[in-house]
Amino acid sequence: MIVFEPAAPLVRVGETLVGGRRVPGRLLPYGAGAGGTPLRFDPVERRFVLGKLDPTIPVGPCDPGPWSEALSRVPSGPVLVGPCSPAEPVRGAFRAAAEAALSSGRPVYLLDPEPGAVPDGAGHAAVVLCSWRPGRPETAFPGLTSVRAAGLTCAALFPFLPGWTSEPDAIEALVAAAKAGGAASVTALAPSADGEGRRGIVEARSIAEPGEGERFFDLVHHGNWSERLADRLTEVRAVVTRHGLAPMPPRPVGRLERAGNAAAAARLEELAERLERDEHRAALLHAAVRWIDESRRDLSAVAREGNFRRIFPFSGEVAAEAESALREASIQRSPA
């Protein structure tokens, strides 16, 4: 029997990348081990959550108020809410946390919500992240179709696992399934390759497909697959693009966020993802994204006035890409 124990809002503060998008904080309505299944890949930590479900699961408040207060500890920028739990219809913690995040005016990512857990009118302020589950490709992204039917933008995320999801046929099948389910994007994630991460991959495969054995163990623990991931991930992006989908989750636009600022941040995140092998340049781009997220000014207006380069503390390609995105956003908003 699982006991849901009332708890204070659980917030994790710390900058991370989810599918290449900057997230400075995360709200966990049902704790870090939630999700309703003993076999789940966490796209934030990029590792499997395995084993039996904890018999006691902390559940946050069903009132948005405490979540709003907790959000004050999270730096400016997008916030991620989730994962959810099958207990959501009774507990309502995910919906409360999502309402607080949306009302803060921030862009919001919602990770694996249960049906009915997404607040009405989320619109462009939220993007739903649907993470992968082992099994047949057509059931790899549970919840994708129902969330998309509610009119929300959805992004599919899957771990790029050697000898499992990294095979060409598997990639094609997963991308096709995500497209059929209404996803706007499909992103392959490099899994954590430390000792714990590798053990989790092997254990997950053993649970999902008991027939797999020593060969897969040797591949994961003794193969050099992690060194070849960058090249293979480029191949995945090509397949995704061929199917007419984006290779990164769309960036939501917060209700109180300037559309131009969001567009510039998204452009720099996408450039950083393409330059992932150049860690210095990627770090510089993410620092620029952080600056934009923390800005309280309408940077599109500043760019129209010709003053953007005077206030933006970055130069060269970073400044050029950001300014270009700001100007394009201004054109899109201008009346015909």
Spans of at least 5 consecutive residues with low confidence: none
Shape: globular
CATH topology description of the largest domain = TIM Barrel
Instruction: Count every helix, treating DSSP H or I runs of 4 or more residues as helices.
Output: 13
Order of helices and strands: EEEEEEHEHHEEHEHEHHHHHHHH
**The CATH C-level class name of the largest domain:** Alpha Beta
Q: Helix amount, in percent?
A: 40-55%
Structural class designation: alpha/beta
Please give the radius of gyration in angstroms: 20 Å
Walk me through this protein's architecture.
With 336 residues, this protein is an alpha/beta fold. The chain folds into two domains: 240 residues, TIM Barrel (Alpha-Beta Barrel), CATH 3.20.20; 75 residues. The protein is 41% helix and 16% strand. The strands form three sheets. A seven-stranded mixed β-sheet has the order 2-3-7-8-9-10-11. It has a two-stranded parallel ribbon with strand order 1-6. A two-stranded antiparallel ribbon has the order 4-5.
Topology:
Elements: E1 3-6, E2 11-18, E3 21-27, E4 40-42, E5 47-49, E6 56-59, H1 64-71, E7 79-81, H2 88-91, H3 93-103, E8 108-111, E9 126-131, H4 144-149, E10 153-159, H5 168-180, E11 185-189, H6 195-208, H7 214-222, H8 229-242, H9 259-274, H10 279-294, H11 299-304, H12 308-311, H13 316-333
Parallel strand pairs: 1-6, 3-7, 7-8, 8-9, 9-10, 10-11
Antiparallel strand pairs: 2-3, 4-5
Helix pairs in contact: 1-3, 6-7, 9-10, 9-13
